[in-house]
Amino acid sequence: MQDLLPEDMLRFRRIEDVFQTCCRNWGYQEVRTPTLEYLYLFTATGTLTPSMLSKVYSFLDWDGWSGERVVLRPDGTIPVARLYIDNLSGQELTRLFYVTNIFAFEGTGKENRERWQCGAEFFGGAKSAPDVEIILLAEEVIRRLGISNVELQLSHAGLVKALLKELKLSPSEEAKMTNRILEGNWQALTKAKSTNPEIDRLIAALLGLKGKSSSFLHNVRASFPKASQDFKSSLEDLINIAALLDNLGCSYKIDIAAIHGFEYYTGICFQFLAAGEKIGGGGRYDNLVPLMNGEDIPACGFALYVDPIMKLLTLGKKKKGEPGILVKGKELTPGIAKTCFTIAESLRDAGYPAELDFTGRKESNYRWVVLVSGKEPCSFMITDYVQGRRLDAASMAEILKVVSEG
Amino acid sequence: MKDYQDGYIKLALPKGRFLSPTSSLLAEIALGFQDYSDKTKQYRLRSARFPGLSAKILQEKDISIQVAVGNYDLGICGLDWIEEFLVKYPAGALVKISSLNYGEGSINVVVSAEAGIANLNELSAGRNDYRIVSEYPNLAEAFALNLRMRRFRIFQVWGAAEAYPPENADLAVLWGKSGTHIATQGLIPLKKLLPVTAFLIANRESLENKDLSQILMCFSSKLIAEPQTSIENGLDISEELKGTRPLWQAKEINLALPDGHQQAPTSQFLKQAGLALQGYSEEVVSRRPSADLDWLGIKVIRPQDMPLQVANSNFDLAITGEDWLLEHLYRFPSSPVKKLFALGFGIVKIVAAVSQEMPVADIDELRSLVQSSKFAPLKVASEYINIADKYLRDNHVNPYKLIPTWGASEAFLPEDADMLIDNVQTGKTLKQHKLRVIDVLFRSSACLIANKDSLASSDKKGKMEFLTKKLRAGLK
Predict the structure, then answer these.
(1) Which residues does chain A have within 8 Å of residue B87's beta carbon, measured at their own beta carbons?
(2) Residue numbers in B near A45 (CB within 8 A)
(3) For chain A, which residues lie within 8 Å of any Cβ of chain B, measuring from their own Cβ?
(4) Do B348-444 and B253-347+446-472 fall under one CATH topology?
């Protein structure tokens, strides 16, 4: 469990502000889903791994005798997909974004159980332009946040699934293999020798090589003419996306094995890394909405992980004495206190942040300090810490004049 | 180890099914405890050989938890309760040392022979909402998640899980001695989850920091490699295992009757009321007794489970205790369960008790003591979690920690809990264990409860009234 302190919240709000601005500029609208959802919402798709689902915080609701359990939201996309199906599925194209916390049961009590993410989902857009749109949107947010040395990695869930099918495993073995890969254990795939040497060659090549342009994928296509139809069409899809990114000057690395946890994804999967940490990811999930009893609507989306990004964010240093005004009372009589409140209110009305202080302690973190003495005719003394001067003022109008002239 | 002070090493030993084989094992490895027998009234045992070793007899369900929290360094209990804990808290402080190679049967996922579910694939592919009943909710959930079941609900029960399918549950996760044993209950095993063998377990920190070697050495001749315990075992369905129970027919009104201590007085009461039952006398115990009313379905289950099972409409009427009804209503105030009338038997007092050594006479003095932080947080052992919770809140006792137990809370005092909230009949047991009652929360009698929706239903109303009238006539 962690507190977000004022310094943390400055970073948090900066991320949120940049994210919201970018999303709105791209035509996305904000939504918010409840923190509590029914457990079956997350089991119903049959796509989340058992290990992920075993880490949900679940409990009985007011009608616990029904056996139905509720959970603290463990994932950002599925609730938004539910919101879309329940309320917005009539629209042809729907672009939504959200800032939300997700919860994961943590077995040691040492790790953080609540994580924040900024996510965007695009319902109704079929490949490949929408895939590129969400990649570029995510990339723009990261760029505007000023995070440097970011690597974009691309993979494709369809390709991985086609490879798995080629191994011709039994349904239960295939399910186990899928779980292992989703948990990031790609060695399992290379160890599973198929009867077909062509498949072993394909797996070795795809897991071993990393490409930096669509040419790499063209080479793969040319080297494996006997690959299955599923594989070829997924490869084609990835080629289209990669080619478009090439044309737009967006650099990336194709690394099939880099990505895990792509549970409901069906097409492109991507993630952003900075300073060795994963700061965001997303992909295409065309089956999720139909699996949740919605219509056959294709969709894609991404989420940026606020916690690691907060650590990477450099905030512009707040200049000393800018731009605050401190209003102080010389002594705490009812008359002076009233004047202090009135002065501060007028300053705020004029657009200046104004803080009150009745403690008499020295305070130098402000450009201006207005001391209310209560003595006529010059009831106010203004100290300008930037220019190091002192001025007397007799009225509110005079204070405003001094402050506005700087 | 003679240098160590008394009670340096604490061992938790099982009561119930594993008591006698564990006692024999300990005797064999020269670690015997004189009073560790079926007849003992003691909970605390001293080792004659190792003065530094003390032991306590606990319910098996409590042992894995008590060892994990560090109240005991070592423990012996069944693998089922260990895995029930570990599947939920894999990174916890519970370490399996070794199987002790005795035990019987296994934990299985079963369906009713009448359910028409032939294999696991149907469960994972299906879009049905499966009801799973079990004493092992964590194992049941892990099973459902591993199978990627799309929708399921888990009903935790205190026992008698075999009585629920097919009407009141689709699947059960339960213990069975063998495939045949399960089949005689009209059930088919779909998957074996784990064998039930006794295990030696340890607290991780004790194992890492404390010298337990002399005790562990005693076990050395008995330590064997872990048997197959993976809950990913293959299918274990034998084709010849077919249910033997006649086809079940839906009944208009369903009544739940209690097993255990309450069975004899309930049976007596029903006789008085003139309700003739087959299969509910002390000699013949059936999970499904029959009455001479063809519209009445009857099942025998745990009284603790009844309020919830009436609330979810599995039963229209049930005979349970007022204590268990209250426990349910405190948790779910809008539950559609209603008490119709008390039956006047099975009377117990629900009391709060502390060790005689604790210097308090009543709850007010206890509150002050907790506030003075001598006993903060106050550890309260109870099988009535919600009643205990409400009692402590209402009396402004703060802070406190609840320790759920499965009966016999008195074993926890004074070492592992400061107070208990439990039922007593005479108070003799409490005195024996040097405990003092500081408050009586309420008196509880057996009572007839009903589902409010059933009472209001035009289809059921007439027969419900007929039955309640008949039962009311049994009151003296």
Answers:
(1) 54
(2) 150
(3) 40, 43-46, 50, 53-54, 60, 62-69, 107-108, 171, 175-176
(4) yes
Residues in chain A within 8 Å Cβ distance of B150: 40, 43-46
Instruction: Give the DSSP H/E element, type plus range, for residue A114.
Output: strand A114-123
Q: For B235, which residue in chain A has the nearest alpha carbon?
A: A172
Q: What is the DSSP letter of A87?
A: I
Which residue in chain A is spatially nearest to B131 when comparing CA positions?
A67
Which H or E run contains A336? helix A334-349
The two beta strands, B348-355 and B419-424, are antiparallel
**B69: CB partners within 8 A, 6+ apart:** B93
| Average pLDDT of the residues of chain B | 89
CB distance A40–B142 less than 8 Å? no
Q: Which residue has the higher pLDDT, B392 or A334?
A: B392
Domain ranges of chain A: 6-312, 325-405
Are A54 and B148 within 8 A, CB to CB? no
**C-alpha–C-alpha distance, residues A22 and B347, integer Å:** 69
Mean pLDDT computed over B181-192:
92
Place of tokens 């009073």: B35
Q: Do domains A6-312 and A325-405 have the same CATH topology?
A: no
> What values do phi and psi take at A262, rounded to 5?
-95, 45
Those residues with Cβ within 8 angstroms of residue B15's Cβ, 6 or more apart along the chain or in another chain: B57, B58, B59, B60
CATH class for the domain made up of A6-312: alpha beta
Domain A325-405 class, CATH top level: alpha beta
For B49, the token pair is: 């050989």
Minimum mean pLDDT among A77-86, A357-366, B212-221, B287-296: which range? Answer: A357-366
Helix (H, G, I), strand (E, B) or coil at B422: strand
Which residues touch B283 (CB under 8 Å, ≥6 apart)? none
Give the predicted TM-score (pTM) of the model. 0.88
Cα–Cα distance for residue pair B337/A256, rounded to 1 Å: 56
> B9-102+196-222: which CATH number, 3.40.50.150, 3.30.710.10, 3.40.190.10, 2.60.40.150?
3.40.190.10
Find out if CATH 3.40.190.10 is the number for domain B348-444.
yes
Q: Is the pLDDT of residue B133 over 60?
A: yes
Domain range annotation of chain B: 9-102+196-222, 105-194, 253-347+446-472, 348-444
Omega cis (within 30) before B414: yes
H helical segments located in B306-362: 306-311, 322-331
Distance CA A401, CA A300 (A): 55
Run of H or E residues at B13: strand B9-14
B202 within 8 A of B73, measured Cβ to Cβ: yes
Domain B253-347+446-472, what fold? D-Maltodextrin-Binding Protein; domain 2 (3.40.190)
| Residue that has been written with the tokens 């006047």 in this structure | B344
Fold of B105-194: D-Maltodextrin-Binding Protein; domain 2 (3.40.190)
Question: Coil, strand, or helix at residue A232?
Answer: helix
* Residues B266 and B257 sit within 8 Å (Cβ to Cβ): yes
The verdict on a CB contact (< 8 Å) between A67 and B154 is yes
Going from the C-alpha of A238 to that of each of A157, A163, A285, A373, the distances in angstroms are 10, 15, 14, 72
H/E stretch holding A160 reads: helix A157-166
ipTM of the assembly?
A: 0.83
Among chain A residues, CA nearest to B305: A65
A contacts of B145 (beta carbons < 8 Å): 43, 50, 53-54
Q: How many CB atoms lie within 10 A of CB A161?
A: 18
Is B150 close to A63, i.e. CB distance below 8 A?
no
User: With contact defined as beta carbons under 8 Å apart, do A254 and A151 qualify?
Assistant: no
